[in-house]
Structure formats: C-alpha cells, structure tokens
Records
---
Amino acid sequence: GENVEQHPSTLSVQEGDSAVIKCTYSDSASNYFPWYKQELGKRPQLIIDIRSNVGEKKDQRIAVTLNKTAKHFSLHITETQPEDSAVYFCAASISGGSYIPTFGRGTSLIVHP
Amino acid sequence: DAGVIQSPRHEVTEMGQEVTLRCKPISGHNSLFWYRQTMMRGLELLIYFNNNVPIDDSGMPEDRFSAKMPNASFSTLKIQPSEPRDSAVYFCASSGPQRAGGFNGYTFGSGTRLTVV
C-alpha cells in the first residue's frame, strides 16, 4: 500500500519567514495530493491540493510543488503569520474508484511573532 | 450544508464502560472513514465504508472496537470495554463519488475527544 513520509515533524519560524514542509510517497500510481491544516482543537481542513498533471500550484501565500519522478511534494508558505501556526498534514491518493488518502504524520508549525 | 456531524464532542468515561461515538456524513457522500488521532501515532485510519459496506477494517486496533453503518446517513464507532489507552480524538470523514478531475468533497467532522479514566 501507499506510504507517506512527512518532514520535519516540528518547524519553528519567525513571523515573515518562509516555511517548507516536505513529503514523499511510495506508490507511483498516486495522482492526487491534498494538504490539510489543523488548528489546535479543531478538525483538519483542506487548504490546497495538487494533481499529478501539474508541477506547481499557488494560492496567495501558499504553494505546492510536485516532483513525480522523485515521488515527493512540498508545501511552501511565504510571509508566515502567527495564524499560520497549526499542524499540517500531507496526503497521497489515487483518484478514480474509492478515494482513500494516506496521510503523513503531520508537521507542527510554530510562527513566532 | 452542515458538514460532517459528530457527537458527542467530548466524552469522559470510566475504564470498562462502553463508549459509542456517532457520525452523520454529508448528504450524498457515499464513503465514510473513522480515524483516531494521538500525539504518539498521529492520524490513524481505523475503518472505512463505501455505500454503507465496511471495506477495510485492518486499522481497527482490537476486537474491543467495532463500527457500523446501518444507513447512508449514520455510523457508529463502539468501544467495549474501554481502556485508558483508548483516550484520543476520534474523527469521522466522508467523501462523495469520484469525479474525473474533480474534488470529491472529502471532509472531516469536528471530532470526539474521548478520555477514559
């Protein structure tokens, strides 16, 4: 089955800095890669996703990149703000049929004011 | 749409007692997932249903855990007897049918925080 590794487990940055979270996956058939943000005491919520037919996607201060050859994808947050502090999860899945995402272990991002 | 609805939000119970967690998926969604989240293990998939049928329960930790989905709008996760190590946040998620190139609406509920003392 699919295996998703996520690094780092904890990331501490100063407000205004950039943050990068990296994930690798094992199943070359995976073609859909969502990212979830979980604020303290709340549910994980989708913030951005990327499909295997594109290499990069951007939405304001967040962007995702995908390298299918190397089987890794990354989340980039620029100009971090304290409200970006949360746990971020990456996931990999195969679209078509039953959608069953495999999640990484999560990265706790702390943005210091 | 009210989203995925879980109840209760918090549950405190004594060791040995039966605990039942409830989930109402988004209307029209045909897949339902139960997860357990702890600091040690992260987000673990326990079981998932497709069209009310359990497809994969390999993540269910022990026979003390059971899940049912009697209809498309309701699912339960039961722990009997409960133990302190079952303390965690339990999330339910649902998703709709796969659409070519489209997002299937995979959404988490707000979770149930279970404490077994």
Note: The two ends of chain B are 36 Å apart (CA to CA).
---
Amino acid sequence: AQTVTQSQPEMSVQEAETVTLSCTYDTSENNYYLFWYKQPPSRQMILVIRQEAYKQQNATENRFSVNFQKAAKSFSLKISDSQLGDTAMYFCAHGGGSQGNLIFGKGTKLSVKP
Amino acid sequence: DAGITQSPRYKITETGRQVTLMCHQTWSHSYMFWYRQDLGHGLRLIYYSAAADITDKGEVPDGYVVSRSKTENFPLTLESATRSQTSVYFCASSFSGGPNTGELFFGEGSRLTVL
C-alpha cells in the first residue's frame, strides 16, 4: 500500500527563523508528483509547493523550498523567514493513488511564535 | 466565479437521518473526490469519480453514497448518519488522475456534526 508518513505531529518556530517539516512516502511508481498543502485555521486547503519526481532540481516557491531525495523517498519542506501567517497544519501528499487521488500524511501542526 | 464550492458549510443532524453534502466545480475537471478529515488521521478518501457516471470506492466508503450525473456536480449522501461520521468533509477536483495525479483543488470543507 502506498503511504505518506509525517513523523512530527507538532512543531514550533520563532518568527523569522527557519523550520523544516519532514515527510517520507512509499510508492512503486517511477513518475509521480509530491505536494505540500497548508491548512490555516480557516480550514481552506492551500497548495504550497509541488515537485515532479522526474525532476532532480528541488522546487522553490519564495520562502518555501523542498529537499527531495527520490532514492530515500523523502520530501521535506523548509520554510525560511517564518511569519506568523505560516501558522497552520501542513500536509504532505503523494500523487500516486491507484484511484487517481492524492494520498495524505496525517499532518504537522506548525506554530510560529512572535 | 470559477472554482469548487461546497454546501452546506456547517450542518448539525441527528443519528439516523439522511444528509447530502453538495459539491460543484466550474473547471470541467474530469476527476472529483470526497475526503474526510479527522484528527490524527489526516485526509482519507471516501469516494472518487473519474468522469460523469463513473464512481468508485476509496479507503473509507462505508455508510456513504455518491452519484455523478453531470461532470460539475458530485454530491455525497450519508444514508443514515452515525456519530462516527462527525467530521469535516472536503470535495476536490483535478484535471488528471492515475499515477501522475496533479494538483487537487479543494472546496472550503463542510463541517458535519451528528448528534
């Protein structure tokens, strides 16, 4: 079965600091997508960043970047210069579901402290 | 406005009642999904649809029914609600599916409480 594991249920970081959220996954596919979604208290699911498995270069979106290690099946998210608005639940997801769906981890609750 | 909308946003019902959560998307995406979100479980797939009139079960389908007579609508029905179905429900859509599933676009979620 394809799975996504987020080993950190909760994390906290000081404003302006850098934090890294971990994610590992299991798949037998060779080509797939990986995602990080953010869910603030508003409950809306917001795409943060996407990585295509066949691309070796790590994806970057402003203050958000990933460390994608395909052989290790690891996909961590780094948030630089953390802001109070980054406080949210973060979900790692793998686009390899047999039904065409995304498979989600259980989430990491990130708190940014002033 | 284009997008994916869910209704109702909040619903309180009683055990045994039938409840339908609505989902409508304006992108003409082929794939649509229903997830439920529970603390400690993340998001789990209930049902999905690859196209109009094509639906199939996900990870946690028991107690739920779906239909998709039109591409843009994908309602989820709880035929006889139980307390264990208290949850936040998300509808989502995507242009593609299969092993190369791209981004999912989510609705705002429907919080359902079953008393």
Note: DSSP finds no helices and eleven strands in chain B.
---
Amino acid sequence: RKEVEQDPGPFNVPEGATVAFNCTYSNSASQSFFWYRQDCRKEPKLLMSVYSSGNEDGRFTAQLNRASQYISLLIRDSKLSDSATYLCVVGTGGFKTIFGAGTRLFVKA
Amino acid sequence: DVKVTQSSRYLVKRTGEKVFLECVQDMDHENMFWYRQDPGLGLRLIYFSYDVKMKEKGDIPEGYSVSREKKERFSLILESASTNQTSMYLCAVISAGDQETQYFGPGTRLLVL
C-alpha cells in the first residue's frame, strides 16, 4: 500500500463546477499536510497547507480528518486556469515529506 | 520569492555515462532535496542535505550520489547512467525558518539511451 494515495483522475469538469479531491495517508504519526499544484511540464508549487481546523483560501478549502487519515481539497466555481495536477503531500517529521502521485483536473469551457 | 535554478531543462545521455545535475538557490536556505518524478509514482526522495558537506539518503538513493560543497549548490550525480534512471529530476529547497514550503526548481528531464 502506498503511503499517500490519491485518485489519479482525470476529473473533467465544466467551468463553474465544484470539485473535490481526497487523499489518504497510512502513517498515523504524520504531522503536516499540504496541497501542491503542478501545471503541465512545470514544477510543483505550494497551494495551501492543511490544518486540523480546516482552512480556506478564496475558492479553495482544505480539510483534515486525522481519525480517518485523509485530507481533502474542495475547489468552488472552477476556472479554466485551475486545470492542473494536484499533489497531496504529507510530512512525517523533520524535513521528510511524502508526495502522492497527483490528481489531474481538467476544467472545460 | 526563493529562486531555484537547475543546470539543464532537458538532457540526453547514453547508458554508462556519468551525469551531473546541478541545483542552485539564491536564499541561503539550509535544506536542499533531490527528487525524481515518474508517472503514477509521484515524487520520490533521492537524497537531501541540511548543511554544507552534510547529506542523508532518501528513499531511493541507489545509483546516485550527491555533493554539497557550498551552501547554495547541491549536485546530483549519476555515476553510471542506466535506462531506468530516465525521469524528471526536481530539486527543492526548504528554509529552516519556514518548514512548510518547499520551493522547487524547474526540473530536468533526463533521457538515458
């Protein structure tokens, strides 16, 4: 079993739709959680950190469920520019982080 | 913003060649990482360094070595390139003061023939 698992997609959604991604992690001692965004042929960039209380940044909402060991990302009112691969990242202590393989999102006009 | 540069965007090498990939950062950050990214597998950590001349093995160090002689520069070395090392190589940097954000270089796509 992979340490961090994501549905690879692709998710194909129309503009304006709401889309949600889930990610599960296997190490219950994991300490930090992030979503990164990676555009085609580009490097990953931090989208947002995920806190126990949940956090929101504009159209993006991230949630953490420690009991069930999953994190989620919700994108509301999808834009064409949201098309990318979304990487779930889990920190296990120190500087060690485990990356999921990513979920691909295509937003269509 | 932290600027992380990598020596090449695309590289084609032959089996058995020695390959050097270089990463340079401009923010005096202590921690630098080398990953490879393959379809369906995500990013996997090869080596990391938390200071000059210090290095630690990641999850897949076999076939690779690293060098960090100066704080701003972290090199990944493929001693004898093999076809299964064809991949995207990404360098990342973390500040000790901001452990949440990894800043990545643009990546090097390596093809080993």
Note: The mean pLDDT of chain A is 93.
---
Amino acid sequence: AQSVTQLDSQVPVFEEAPVELRCNYSSSVSVYLFWYVQYPNQGLQLLLKYLSGSTLVESINGFEAEFNKSQTSFHLRKPSVHISDTAEYFCAVSDIRNTPLVFGKGTRLSVIA
Amino acid sequence: EADIYQTPRYLVIGTGKKITLECSQTMGHDKMYWYQQDPGMELHLIHYSYGVNSTEKGDLSSESTVSRIRTEHFPLTLESARPSHTSQYLCASSAGQGWEETQYFGPGTRLLVL
C-alpha cells in the first residue's frame, strides 16, 4: 500500500521569503500526487496535482511542485510567500490501481510579517 | 467555490447519544467520502460511496455507518457516541469514479463527546 510522509509539522517563514514543504511517498506502482491546502476555518481545497506528463506542476497562486520519481518526492515550493499563504498543507497520493487517497499529516505554514 | 455543506459545524454531546452528521453537495458528484482527522494527524478515510446505494468502508475502522439514498446526500451516523469518537469529520465529493479526480471538501464538523 502507498504511504505519504511530510517531514515538517510546522514551518515558520518570513513574508517574501522562499519556502519548501517536503513530501515523500512510497508506492510499488505509478502514482498520482496532490497538494491540498486548508486555510483557517475552511475545508481543504486542491492546490495542484500531478497525474502524468510534465513533472513540474504549478498552481494559480504561485506555488509549484516537482515530481521526482527517483527520490519519490513531491516537494511544494514558492519563491516568495505572502501572509495569506498561512495555512495547513497536505500532501496526498493515490496510484494507478485505483486505490483511495492517502494523506500525510500536514505541514502548518506560518508566514510572519 | 465548491458547493458542499456540512452540519453541524460544531457538536458537543454526551456519551451514549445517537448523532448524525449531515453532508450535502449540489455539484451532482457521484463519489462522496468521509474522513476523520485528529489534530496534527493525517486524514483517514472512514467511508466512501461510488453513487446511490453504494457504500464502502475506508482504511480506518470506524463504528459509524453511512447511507447514500440520494446523490447529493451522504449522512454519517454514530448510534452511541463515545469520547473516543471526539474528532473532526470531513466530507468530500468528486466527479467520476477514479481516485485521480479532484476532491471538494466541506468545512468539517468538530465533534466533542463528553
């Protein structure tokens, strides 16, 4: 079965600084990878996903993630964060066998003014 | 913005009570899900449905039950609440049948059982 590890439970970062939220997965077959974001007092919403094709995927608000098969990683990055990026970020994986999504424990990103 | 609703948002209840958490979506999605999330922990899938009259158990054993009589409605019931049921419950839905589809989440229900 697949699994997801988010190595950092909390990441504080100053406004306008770059950030990387780490995600590693394990699976014996090809995977689908997701990043979901949960803003305070809201439900989770999809930030970006990798299904196939280009290994670099981007969101509309400046985040990007790169699928690295050899390192089994799907780290999320943003070159310059805003206060409004403060949220909980969840990495998730499914695979081509049509198995349910498995979520990581989440990383709380706190942007400091 | 996704149209998926959960009620109540917060519930404090005594041990032994029967409770039903409501989830509704207006997007016509076939697939619906219930997740349980403890603070600082992973989301765990407890139930899902491929469509009307279809329900499946997820990867986390749960004493709750679900029903799917209408496409838009996927309620979760606890027959006898216990303190161990204290958690946040998240409902979600997606179009199609595959797990690669984007899931749309409701705001969640925070349950406290005394």
Note: The CA atoms of residues 32 and 70 of chain B lie 11 Å apart.
